[in-house]
Amino acid sequence: MIPVTAAVAQRHLVRPLKSVELFKQVITRNYHSIRDAAEGGRARIAWCSSLGPAELLRALGFRVYFPENHGAILGSFRASEEFIPVATAHGFSPDICSYLTSDIGAFLRKETPLRTLYGFRGVPKPDVLVYNTNQCREVAEWFSFFGREFKVPVLGINTPHHVPEITVAHISSVVDQINALIPQLEKIVGTRLDMNELKKAVKLSHDACMEWKGILGTAAHKPSPFNFFDGLIHMGPVVIMRGMQDAVDYYKVLRKELDERVRDGIGAVEDEKFRLYWDGMPMWGRIRAHSNLFARFKAGVVASTYCNTWALDKLDENDPIRSMAEAYTSLFINRTEGIKEQYLIDMAKEFSIDGIIFHDSKTCPYNSNTRFGMPMRLEKWFHVPNLVVQGDVCNMRLVSDPQFETGIEAFIERLMLKGVEGGAL
Amino acid sequence: MSKYYAGVDVGSWNTKAVIVDKNLNIVGKSVLRTGADIPGAAKKSFDEALKAAKLRKNRPECIVATGFGRAKVAFVDTTRTEITCHGLGANSFYPASLTVIDIGGQDTKMIHVDDAGRNLHFALNRKCAAGTGAFLEEMALRLDVKLDELDGLASKARKRLKLGSFCTVFTGTEILKLVQDGEKVEDIARGLYASIVMRVSEMGHLEGSIVITGGVIAHNPVLKEVFEEELKVMCLVPPEAEFMGALGAARVALGLDKGVEKKKEKKK
């Protein structure tokens, strides 16, 4: 039943994972490695978009830094609101990606949380920036800004957009673009690409992604041992450490803990009554608040499109470049509405979902599946209850907390009224 | 001894309280400005409703709070969102499949309910004052008329002016331009209501009977006419439109939504 006062609300329980301590060590080790390379000249630094060709960069010996992760850190620290206006004053619209505006604003102010978190002097100076437009075109403009600032090359893969069925032509285009990157990157590092190193990186990347997929899959159990808000933390290695042994090893430890939870019937939230799905970006500045809010209603947000993005199951060491092209082209975000719709229906069934929360993120239209009638179609045609909430990925000035909370609470009331408590669709 | 139940709707502008008997008849009610002291406004409104019901010494059997300030009301047994409560309140007058449009001071809601008052689907307004009571208040200032004069002015309109409904501030600027162009205040006033209707119409489908609730319709009856004219639909406005949220909360208290309320919740 729904608690009534703030005092009651505080008594909910979100169960923390023990693995979080190891997670911190692993992430810290990775950032220290980048810091030491950047500030001690031990290795070349490549900036890479979050679903860019990280395996190729690692195979060539680059330390790989992900500006989108920096954007998420700024959002989590609620620093974005301070930095976005700086970028806006520099000519970047407040309507474009708030990862971008947060990151560029912080750079213009010469500030970064990496300083206090990992002992950086500033963001690591790149030797090259490599993007993939498979998620959005913003990364190209974002990286171009830094290319101008640091006077270093900006290379990119321009993936075919919003593809229906993936064809040979789509993949061949991306394969050609990856191949074209190789000599340019070789020139920067001064060595030739060793295909065995690339195969090794692709295998490690594949293994981390498969471990991650298995981890997300544990949430199909009732109660779910792992939820969206756990995922937002623990996805770190699969996002910024693909192609590294540390990521694979970490996920094996996390999986063991989750398997134990499944065995013991322990849920991520106490007394799980409702099972929800989150579609779209998180609101990074409200992760803890939202985690607590859902737990207060005994609602497990058990699966999400966002965390699933990095469950890249097409990577294959035996055909590294082609499999990278396929993995990075076939992302959910880069597909047509029909494919997305079927995906959400399948996820709702697989995870016994009672309802979907669609986040309409103001500055991330590419990852807001609310703008072409999807929620209404799912509700009317497939009887999947859902709610559209407005907000943003980093800019918390675009979030109305009372409206969000009332919306979620009313949605839970609706599910109670519908009598789906504890049940599947 | 008769039993009574209470609903308290702590809205962004006004706090409303109703006391009902076991047949959901309102025996006492109160409305006052919410202001900054939410717990105080809730208590005062509740006490006034009790007084109106001549029940000053009797605590109702169950009290339910709703509205944006519901979590701040300490003396209630439980809470429900205004979305659930407006659906239940409207259903108390019109027990049919409804689209309930609640236009409040700071937000607007479209709620689809079944013939038992159960919320089937709902939508909240986008993050903007356009389409809410706050919009009318701001526009009255721009027109240099009192808020409670807008309704009467709009009912005298001859011309069907179209105003923007995207942004309150931009609409304010638009009004200044219309005034400069010599448009009549009456016509502009009607245009304001029409812009609210347009804003509401984009929130979702109108299904079943359409019921308008909330303080804005209670104090601006012309809005019903504008709705009907602009959208070519018939609209219903319940007699206690401003109290629909409080009445829905009282209905939860009364336990009329049994089958949903398995047992009365007691504050722990």
What does it look like?
- The complex is a heterodimer of chains A (425) and B (268).
- Chain A has 425 residues and is an alpha/beta fold.
- Chain A has one domain (6-418).
- Chain A is built from 19 helices and eight strands.
- In chain A, the strands form two sheets. In chain A, strands 2-1-3-4 form a four-stranded parallel β-sheet, sandwiched between helices.
- In chain A, strand 3, helix 8 (138-150) and strand 4 (154-157) form a beta-alpha-beta unit.
- In chain A, helix 10 runs parallel beside helix 13.
- In chain A, 51% of the residues are buried.
- Chain B is globular, with a radius of gyration of 19 Å.
- Chain B has 268 residues and is α/β, with parallel strands linked by helices.
- Chain B has two domains: 1-94 and 240-268, Nucleotidyltransferase, domain 5; 97-237, Nucleotidyltransferase, domain 5.
- In chain B, the strands form two sheets. A five-stranded mixed β-sheet of chain B has the order 3-2-1-4-5. In chain B, strands 8-7-6-9-10 form a five-stranded mixed β-sheet, with helices on both faces.
- Chain B is built from nine helices and ten strands.
- In chain B, helix 3 packs parallel to helix 5 (168-180), helix 3 runs antiparallel to helix 6 and helix 6 packs across helix 8 (222-231).
Order of helices and strands of chain A: HHEHEHHHHEHEHHHHHEHEHHHEHEH
- Stretches of chain B where pLDDT is under 50 for at least 5 consecutive residues are 257-268
CATH class of the largest domain in chain B: Alpha Beta
C-alpha termini separation of chain B: 27 Å
Neighbour order of strands in the largest sheet of chain B: 3-2-1-4-5
